[in-house]
Design a protein that fits this description.
By secondary structure, the protein is of the alpha/beta class. It is built from five helices and six strands; from the N terminus they run αββαβαβαββα.
């Protein structure tokens, strides 16, 4: 028997079959592996932020009563808020950036307590509060001048505004703790 010599027509077919095998491998192995890696990174990130913002106790458990000054107590219901000790806070420009970033979210407000009202604080935190009885944030927590409180009244994180590195982590924590704005489903209207 004589062997049939290979022709030029066989070469493109073998190249296309190699390309098909590579494409099939990417589709069956590469895509799921990439998706798993992406989802695993997202899960790890969420778990890390969750651990950083674990509840440290409710405001009520500290015996603190928030007494609103110029707004109703029920206006805090269902909202996350940042309690700011205006007498000690520094970095008002960073706080203003955060307030602008979350300004459109009706589920978040910045409220402050201040005896001396630093310039610019009233614009950032238009709502004021007083601590009931003889409480003072400085005596209750000498190291931190801002408290992140979730919508259920639990303190999630305390911050020292003198530390420049806390501002980026605060944005991460706020994005995790502040309830998202619910968007109505889009509906198509036909004429």
């Amino acid at each position: 028997m004589t062997s049939i010599p290979s022709t030029e027509k066989d070469k493109p077919r073998s190249q296309s079959s190699k390309l098909g095998v590579v494409a099939l491998f990417l589709l069956l192995i590469g895509l799921p592996a990439g998706s798993w890696y992406y989802l695993q990174k997202g899960f790890s990130y969420s778990k890390e932020v969750y651990d950083e913002t674990s509840a440290q106790g409710s405001i009520d458990s500290l015996g603190v009563t928030l007494v609103p000054v110029g707004f109703r107590q029920d206006s805090l219901d269902g909202k996350a808020f940042l309690l700011v000790d205006g007498d000690r806070v520094s970095g008002l420009d960073n706080l203003e950036k955060i307030q602008k970033q979350f300004d459109t979210n009706p589920n978040f407000i910045v409220i402050s307590k201040s005896d001396r009202h630093p310039s610019g604080l009233k614009k950032i935190a238009p709502y004021e509060y007083a601590l009931g009885a003889d409480y003072d944030m400085a005596s209750m927590d000498a190291d931190n001048d801002m408290w992140l409180v979730d919508r259920d009244g639990y303190i999630r994180r305390k911050y020292d505004s003198r530390d420049d590195e806390i501002w980026q982590s605060m944005v991460r924590h706020l994005a995790f703790v502040v309830p998202k704005v619910r968007r109505d489903q889009l509906s198509i209207k036909r004429k």
